[in-house]
Automatic annotation (TrEMBL):
UniProtKB keywords: ATP-binding, Nucleotide-binding
PROSITE patterns, per database record: PROTEIN_KINASE_DOM (PS50011)
Organism: Triticum urartu (Red wild einkorn)
Keyword hit for Zinc-finger: no
Protein name as it appears in the record: Protein kinase domain-containing protein
Domain Protein kinase: 1-173
Length: 173
């Protein structure tokens, strides 16, 4: 089911980025923006922060805010540093959603051990995503109790790693 949810969300993001009559940059894709129907098919919603794009992927709306908008934990690093959203920003946020599906962790959560510091699921998972053994041993949601198709978990991890590193491309070039 989780793989299907990720695929549905990826198709929705691909549609917004490539196929919509006015291409759309969502800017704030997060798990609560992905609705599921009665068959658990995913649909992306809440386009309140979306912008229309020109052919080169640059925001087309003149009313673009001067300050950065979005939800902490889903920001792409370049968006957080420079304050300019791009198609890659939406793909990064999608990668965070995939990590949520894999791990059942919030985008930003409290570190264990009583340290009290916040930790990004992206930072927590980075080293684990580089090692196929750790992908299946340490990333999966504990509620799965180790019962999941190994190949599907590795594919989901690859998807999350590619999205969060900026190398994922949705659809044909």
């Amino acid at each position: 089911m989780r793989v299907g949810m990720a695929l549905g969300a990826a198709r929705g993001l691909e549609y917004l980025h490539k196929a919509a009559a006015a291409r759309i940059l969502h800017r704030d894709i997060k798990s609560i923006d992905i609705l599921l129907d009665d068959r658990f098919r995913a649909r992306i919603t809440v386009l309140g922060m979306a912008n229309c794009l020109m052919n080169d992927g640059v925001t087309n709306c003149s009313s673009s805010p001067a300050r950065m908008l979005g939800t902490f934990g889903y920001f792409a690093p370049e968006y957080a540093i420079v304050g300019k959203a791009s198609l890659k920003s939406g793909v990064f946020s999608f990668g965070v959603v995939v990590l949520e599906l894999i791990t059942d962790r919030q985008p930003v959560h409290m570190k264990g051990g009583g340290g009290g510091a916040d930790e990004s699921v992206v930072m927590w998972s980075t080293s684990r995503l580089r090692d196929n053994r750790l992908v299946v041993a340490e990333l999966p949601d504990l509620a799965l109790k180790g019962v999941f198709p190994l190949e599907e978990m590795q594919i989901m991890a690859h998807l999350a790693r590619s999205a969060c590193s900026g190398t994922l491309r949705l659809g044909p070039p």
